[in-house]
Amino acid sequence: MSAADALRAQIAALVVTHQSESTIDDCLSRLRAADGVAAIRVVDNSSTDGTVAIVQRHAAADARVRFIANPDNPGFAVACNQGVADLGDAAADAWLAFVNPDCLVEPDAMARLRAHGAGLGDCLLGADLVDDAGVRDAAARRRDPDFAAMLARLWRSPTDAGRLGVAVDAARAVQPVEAVSGALMLLPRSLFDRLGGFDTGYRLHAEDLDLCRRAREAGATVAVGNDVRVLHVRGVSSRRRPLFVEWHKHRGLARYFGKFEAPRRSAPVRIAVYAVIWARFPLALARACLRAVTG
Length: 295
Known about the structure:
With about 300 residues, the chain is α/β, with parallel strands linked by helices. The protein has helices at about 5, 25-35, 50-60, 75-85, 110-120, 145-155, 190-195, 205-215, 240-260, 265-295; strands spanning about 10-15, 35-45, 65-70, 95-100, 105, 125-130, 175, 185-190, 220-230.
């Protein structure tokens, strides 16, 4: 069987790692055992812990696993696009699954998501992400950020200003939403290529919101497989570098606003939104540092 035949209508999993030694072994073991996964690409962004050795061991044991080592950390979006490019033309008909190294899938999870997508045409799908206590991740189902509305909510209720989560519709196995979490995203390679991949202007955070929005604007369905549950450990490497994460999170939000909303907002609103984003940064950084210290 040729490489093209092996990947046709199958799933190519792409994992971006950075200081991921605590979860990457389990992540890759599960992906290798997952139904329908015909290729696995791991792109490492300059890990200095045991991540690289673990990935190399998986690559030596399984021909589906290939490894790309970046000498620096160019960011999540760049690394995702690298992984897709490495698949080559053989994966032209494949489904792409972007999987965080702290996502641990069940054997049938990816195939069930793909089966949901088969009836939707162009689509971008997420899963029902839960932590090890079974608590759902609010980021799995989100609205687009509406920054003008954020300012209004901030005036009325500061604690509710930044919430984007959407409630689970338990009556629907596939729930359309505006955005899903980048921790696990599944879409056809053809759609990914048509969108031009991830926007590499983002370094970390908001690139998933951006891709979802562009997918919808291109006519694709964005939805969550409510019956496909995936364990998401969350923030394993992020807790080690709160300044880096919070800086790029806020920078990503500013980029997203500038790209999608700023052109249709008045100058006073644009100034107010940018001011709120960056005024929030020191508070968010303090909270992140406290979480890193207290575990």
